[in-house]
Amino acid sequence: xxxxxxxxxxxxxxxxxxxxxxxxxxxxxxxxxxxxxxxxxxxxxxxxxxxxxxxxxxxxxxxxxxxxxxxxxxxxxxxxxxxxxxxxxxxxxxxxxxxxxxxxxxxxxx
Length: 110
What we know:
about 110 residues, mainly alpha, about 75% helix, extended
């Protein structure tokens, strides 16, 4: 990894740490996003991580409607996201049931 690669990896480390602080301490979606932008630096990387985690934490209803309106194809994005989430839940529940049945029989699956 060259010098620019090392600087990038170092920035990811600090971006991740500061993102966790924002996610844990956030009281609202928009407040945390605004704060990360005002911090400067690589706010784009932090914003992506924080936005995804806070969307999960607070729900899509916490994202300001005027922000959502600025995204082209938002309705399609939301529908595709719901579909992915439903499929993920189905797979997780099937795997959990398999694990639970095997665990009941003394056959631990890890």
